[in-house]
Specification:
The protein is mostly helical. The protein has one domain. Helix content is 49%, strand content 11%. α3 packs across α5. The termini are far apart.
Length: 103
C-alpha cells in the first residue's frame, strides 16, 4: 500500500484493480493485466505529465525478470516492462524511474 499512499499524497494516481475483478478475469482465462494496460493507455492518451515508479527501480525489476516469462511477473513489474516497450510511442521518455512527457 505504500506506493499507493505515496502517489496519492503527491497528487498522483495509482492503478488498482479490485481483487474480485482480477479473480473473475483469471477464472475466464483473461489476463487481468489488460486492466492495467488500458489504464496506462488512457492516462498517457490524456497526456499526463509523468509516470513515476515507487517502491523499486526500473533496473531492479528488469534484471529480476529478464529471463523469466513476463506473464508471471507481478502487475507492477509488468507495468514497468510495458512502459519500457510502449511509452515512447505515446511521447514519453524514460528518466530514471520516471517517464516524462516530451514537450
Amino acid at each position: 500500500m505504500t506506493p499507493m499512499e505515496v502517489a496519492l499524497d503527491r497528487g498522483g494516481k495509482y492503478i488498482l484493480a479490485h481483487p474480485a475483478v482480477v479473480r473473475e478475469l483469471q477464472q475466464r482465462n483473461i489476463d487481468p493485466f489488460l486492466i492495467y494496460e488500458a489504464a496506462l493507455r488512457m492516462e498517457m492518451g490524456s497526456r499526463i505529465s509523468r509516470i513515476d515508479l515507487v517502491g523499486g527501480t526500473v533496473d531492479q525489476f528488469v534484471q529480476a525478470w529478464k529471463d523469466k516469462p513476463h506473464l508471471e511477473a507481478p502487475m507492477h513489474v509488468r507495468q514497468v516492462l510495458w512502459l519500457l516497450g510502449n511509452a515512447r510511442a505515446f511521447g514519453y521518455e524514460r528518466n530514471g524511474n520516471s517517464w516524462i512527457l516530451k514537450p
